[in-house]
Amino acid sequence: MAQIELRFYHSLNDFVEPALRNAVIVHHLNRRASVKDIIESFNVPHTEIEQILVNSHVVGFNYIVQHGDFIQVYPAPFAPVMTPAFALRPPSPRPPLFVIDANLGKLARYLRLLGLDCLYRNDYHDDTVAKIADEQHRTVLTRDRTLLQRRIIVYGYFVRACLPRVQVKEVLNRFNLHPLLKPLTRCSHCNGQLIEIEKQEIEHRLEPLTKQHYHRFLICSVCNQIYWHGSHCKHVQQLIDGFSI
């Protein structure tokens, strides 16, 4: 029976049992296993991992664990060996493209208000989320740890906070998104891009008071939802400003 030692660093300790956090874990195994399999047996999703050292050498997820190995597992941005040659995955798109699971609807809406590309539907199944992430190179945002352990998901993040507005700040900080925000450029309903449209082109769709008092309009290029700078915009702007604090 092989014996190995592991240690998880920083935020990865959120996933392991309390007694094993910030400590060297002695682990026994009687089967051939990759380092990815060993790590995820401690409930740590591979998407949270930035770098793995085995006996001080950088390895990939497919490394086969050997007797006597000392395994150190790091999240972003704490990887001790900074070289692209040893990256566990290709660089993600910048700005990132998100797909958000069905339980985080408010987070999706807020991120869209900030101009971020977020696919979301309240009837998405986990299989759908995983397939979209794989085919479109999107980063999964979820509070479902088991979803992130699916092999085909390359980019993902487990959202720690429970409150939607706190979740937004967490995601913005985790992915360093503040410089990339373009508020009020995406449809909060469908994620389509907003474009300016002349009032006369959509007058027939406006309520009488809206037609009388407002003159600048945006329309979603996908679902044709109409937006205008009405009294609600002040509330939206306050909400957006709050995320930058």
Characterise this structure.
This protein is elongated. It is α/β, with parallel strands linked by helices and 245 residues long. The protein has a five-stranded mixed beta sheet with strand order 2-1-5-3-4, with no helix packed on it. A four-stranded parallel beta sheet has the order 7-6-8-9, sandwiched between helices. A three-stranded antiparallel beta sheet has the order 10-11-12. The chain has helices at residues 35-40, 105-113, 126-136, 145-148, 164-174, 199-202, 208-213, 232-243, and strands at residues 2-8, 25-29, 51-54, 57-59, 70-74, 98-100, 118-119, 139-142, 155-158, 194-197, 217-220, 226-228. The chain starts with a strand and ends with a helix. It has three domains: 2-83, Beta-grasp domain (Ubiquitin-like (UB roll), Roll), CATH 3.10.20.30; 98-180; 194-243, no CATH class. It contains eight helices and twelve strands.
The gist of it:
With 245 residues, the protein is an alpha/beta fold. The chain has eight helices and twelve strands.
What tags apply to this protein structure?
245 residues, alpha/beta, Ubiquitin-like (UB roll), 4-stranded parallel β-sheet, 8 helices, elongated
The count of β-strands is: 12
Mean pLDDT: 91
The string of secondary-structure elements, in order, is: EEHEEEEHEHEHEHEHHEEH
Compute the separation of the termini in Å: 53 Å
Radius of gyration: 22 Å
What's the story with the biggest beta sheet? 5 strands, mixed
Question: What overall form do the CA principal axes indicate?
Answer: elongated
Helix content: 25-40%
Please, how many helices? 8
| Uncertain spans | none
Major sheet: arrangement of strands? 2-1-5-3-4
Strand content: 15-25%
- Could you say which structural class the secondary elements and strand pairing correspond to? alpha/beta
